[in-house]
Amino acid sequence: MFRLARSRSTTLAALIALGVPGRAHAEGLAPPADEPQAPAPEAPADAPPPADDAPAEAAANTTTEPAKPATGTLRGTILDGSTGLGLPAATIQASGAPAGDVLAITELDGTYALELPAGTYEVTVSTPEYVTRSRTVTVEAASSVELRLELEPVPVEAGEETIEIVDKIDTRKESAVLAVRRSATVVSDAMSSQEISRTPDSNAGDAMKRVVAVTVQDGKYVALRGLEGRYVTALLNGVLLPSPEPDRNAVPLDLFPTSLLSTMTVMKSYSAELPAQFGGGTLSIDTSSFPTSFELRLGVSTSANTVTTGQAGLTNATAGGFAHFLGFDDGSRALPGAVPRNRPVRGMDAAATEQIGEAMPNVWTPEAATMSPNLGVNVTIGDSTRLGGKRVGYLATAMMRREYGVRDGETGRVAISDGSLTQIENMRYQTGTAEATVGALANVGVDLSSDDELGLLGLYTHVGEDVNQRSFGYNQLEGAELDVTRMQFVERALAFAQLHGKHHLSRPHGLELRWQGNVASTRRDELDSRDLTYTVEPSSGSRQFEDQPGSGQHFWQVLDDLSGGAGADLRVRAGRAQLRAGTLAQLSSRTLGGRRFRYRFMNGGDNAVRTLPGEDMFSSDHIGSSFQLVEDTLNEDAYRASLDIFAGYATAEVPLHDKLRVIGGVRYERSAQELSNGSPFAVAGLATSVARTDDDVLPAANLVYSPRADMNVRAAYSYTLTRPRFRELAPFLFFDYVRRRSISGNPELVTTHIHNADLRWEWFPSEDEVFAVTAFYKQFVDPIEQVLTNVNGNATFENAEGGHLFGGELEARTTLGRITPALRRFRLGTNLAVMRSRVELGGEAMMRLTSPTRPLYGQSPFVVNVNVGWVHPAVADIHVLYNVIGARIIDVGAEGLPDTYERPVHRVDLVAARRLTDDLALKLGVSNLLGQRVRVEQGDVTVNGYSPGVSVSLGLDWTP
Question: pLDDT (tens digit, 9 = 90+) per residue, 856-873?
Answer without folding.
Answer: 777 889 989 898 999 888
